[in-house]
Structure formats: C-alpha cells, structure tokens
Design goal:
Elements: H1 10-16, E1 21-27, H2 33-41, E2 48-54
Parallel strand pairs: 1-2
Length: 75
C-alpha cells in the first residue's frame, strides 16, 4: 500500500498496522534526521522497517554502476 507521509497523515500510521513490513522513502537533503526518527518511532518496532534514500546526488568520481556495463562483455 502506498500512503501519504507518515508525519503528515494519521491514515499512514493506521495503514502500517496490518502490514508485514514497511518501506519509508526519505528525500535526501530535505528530510531531517529527527523527522526520520520521529516517523520510525510511530511504527511498530516488531515490524521490518526499511528505508530508501531518494533523490541523492552523486558526487564527482562516484562510479557506482559503471562496472555493470562490462558484465558479460569482453574488454
């Protein structure tokens, strides 16, 4: 189920109840660490809670993923 942000809508916390695991999407450079912790604290700690960092900027020289361009190919 997709829901509105946990801190802004009470429905989100209610929807998390019957779920077996939770994926929270965190916007890089915008969402404060305290907000992430407050949202996590609202959830059932016995559930698997996963975080996805969205819209992060790649730094110059970060070549993650370029390696896979060669996977299965001869150099």
């Amino acid at each position: 189920f997709d829901s509105p942000p946990l801190l802004s809508a009470p429905e989100s916390q209610a929807l998390s109840g019957p779920m077996g695991q939770i994926v929270m999407v965190v916007k890089a450079g915008t969402t404060l660490q305290q907000q992430v912790q407050a949202a996590i604290d609202m959830l059932d700690p016995s559930k698997a809670i996963n975080l996805v960092l969205n819209q992060s900027r790649r730094s110059h020289g970060d070549y993650y993923g370029s390696y896979y361009g060669y996977y299965g190919q001869e150099k």
